[in-house]
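Thread title: Can someone regenerate the structure for this chain?

I was given the following input by a collaborator and told the matching structure tokens would be attached. They weren't. Posting the sequence so someone can regenerate them.
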Amino acid sequence: MPNTLLWIIIFIISLFTLIKASDYFTDASEKIGVYFGLPSFIIGVTIVAIGTSLPELVSSVIAVLKNSPEIVVGNVIGSNITNILLVLGVAAIIGKEIKITYKNLYIDVLLLLASAFLLSLTILDGVFSLPEALVCLLGAGFYLAYTLRIEKEPEHAETKKTKKLQTKTIGILLGSSVFIYLGAEYTVESVLKLSEIFNID
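Best answer:
Regenerated them for you:
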């Protein structure tokens, strides 16, 4: 029991570290993007979008390196189910209603369904191979390029560039990168240990 409690504490601390470090990394990256004059929308669909997925990405990579690829699939499916059902549901309850635009309904939802179908197709045989991984990365690149092309806001005509980039920002970026790795490393390790203790797949 003491060993179980120890790994539960490690899991909570490492998961908290992973999430907070990702937040700091995203904030620092955004400030650096503003310094180089990147439009706010470009920062949103690249730095912020990728930054908010860092916990899943890094923990999945570490899980593969630890020969536990099952965690990756569970991570991807679980994250999407949570985002769609839990996040959207809670947001709708708090806000009473969420307005859906034509683009949301006929473009974004279709792309979401297409990505889910592609995932189902690639893992149908029980193996996710290198060519299938390249196809998925190509799909992600296509979506990013498509979004950058069609989403144009008036304020993007002029981009604001900050005069000075603080050394503190660079330090936060580098420091948060280290804590992202450590948080992901011990999150995966604690999950594996707890699964062994409770005999869970």
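The first helix runs from residue 2 to 35.
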